[in-house]
Structure formats: C-alpha cells, structure tokens
User: What shape does this take?
Amino acid sequence: MSRAPIADGHGHTNPVRGVGAARIARRFKEAGGWFQALVALSPWHYALEFRGYDSYVELIDIHIRECKAAEDEGLKVACIAGFHPADVDHLIDRYHMKPVEVLKLGLRVVDYVAKLCSEGVLDGIGEVGRQHYKTMPERVVIANLILERALEHARDNGCVVHMHLENAGTDTVDLTSMAVDRVGVGGEMRSRIFFHHVKPVMAARAYELGYSSTIPGLARILEYAFTRLDPVYIVESDYIDDPARPGAVVYPWEMASTQQRLASKGLASEEYLYRINVDNVVKVYGIEPP
Ligand SMILES: [Zn+2]
Ligand SMILES: [Zn+2]
Assistant: This one.
C-alpha cells in the first residue's frame, strides 16, 4: 500500500442535497486524503430561490462554510467559487434572462470572487470557461468573456483559476492559451491557471505551455497517465455530492484507493505519486506539505 498522501485537485460538496463537506472530508482523510480543492456549485444546486446576484453571494457564503467544515476535519483546502459556463444557458433558458444581462451578472460575480481572493477569504476563481456541449454561439461568447475577466484577476491578484472548457483536445489548450496571452498572464502566474477535467494528452500540452491541469481520477485514465505521462498534473474526483445527479464522477476516497492500487501493481512509483499529490499542490497553492 502506497504511503503518499492523496490530493483531490477539483471536487464539489453539497450540504443541501448531498452529505456535505465534513462527512466527505472525514471519509477522504481515512482513505489517505490530505488536500481538496473545493469548488462551489450553482445557486439552483443548493435549492436557493433564484434572486440574481444575491443568490451567488449567498451560495458563496454556504461554500465558504463548507470549506471551513472540511478544514475542521483536518484537510487542507483551497476554496474556489465562480460562474460556471453552463450557468449562462440555465439563466437564459430557465430564468429567461437576456444574454447581455447574463454577461453583466457573470462579470459581477467573478469580480466579487476576485475581491474575496484578494482578501484571502477564497483561494481562486472557478469554474469559469466555455460550455463543453453544443449551444448558441452568443452564449459561448458570453462564457468566454467571463473567462477573460477571471484571467485578468489572475494576472492582477494572483488568483488560482479552474477552467472548464470544451473537449477539443490540444486545440482547446492552444486556443485558450492565446486568450491567456492576450490578457497577459505570464511566468509563474500561468501555473496557477488550471485546465480542469482534461484528457492526459491535454494535460501534457498544458504543462508544456506553463499551465496546471487536473485529470479525472478514473482507473482507465490514471492507468494511461501513470504509464505515459510525466508527473505534471493533479488528479481530481469532480465529485458533485448530489444523489440526483450521478454522472461521470468518482468518489474522492475511490480516487485515492485507485491510485494506491495502481501503485501497488507497479504502474507508478512512490515518488511519482508524491509528485502529483503533494509537490504539484504545494507549488501552485502555496501551502505547507503534510
Ligand atoms: Zn467542470
Ligand atoms: Zn467541477
């Protein structure tokens, strides 16, 4: 059994519909977990009555309490909130907002999150990015403009950014990198920008260009990454803690045991696990190793 502490590079908790951060943290810790980047969900996932901007402020409050609850269980946490690209569609389709109103709301939410980052209340902005499914072109433009605002805050305040993007392989990485260059995020700061939920080939490209990435903690993906990639990424559960929305996610504790199992089969060395689970986390988030 591997002794490397395990990090979850991107996951969600839901104290309203799911079991919440404290129970998840306890179970993850028992399985060898030491760190989780906890990313806020959208207002409707917390069953909040939708009141525009105020609902986002409210959910960010809930999320900050969730991060504290996980910390109280002894986990290190990076606490992240944003404006998910799917929110653009949901707000137009479900709440009949005008596209330009959605853009204004998204920019305001991202500005608020960045302010909390600069105050040390939050650690990063996410998810922001582009829809991973087909939608109206103007909605992709809106999502991309909100992403660019988040990148400006990364440049100005050193916020970490978790990007949720379409899955066009290395083209997605290259196209997004051009947006980052236009905003002017260079050097060390680029490593604080994450391509989240990417294929191993995209993780390798992201690293080449100076970015960070998280890959899904599924056995078949990890098997590929462990044997073919340098340890230049972090593994994520993308667990959403919502029994009504089961999907392509993995429990954080399963993600931990999968890594340990693959290591015991000789697919990854102890040093490799340490690099992806500790070194890469410590470097980007500026926290003490366990
Ligand atoms: Zn995502
Ligand atoms: Zn996510």
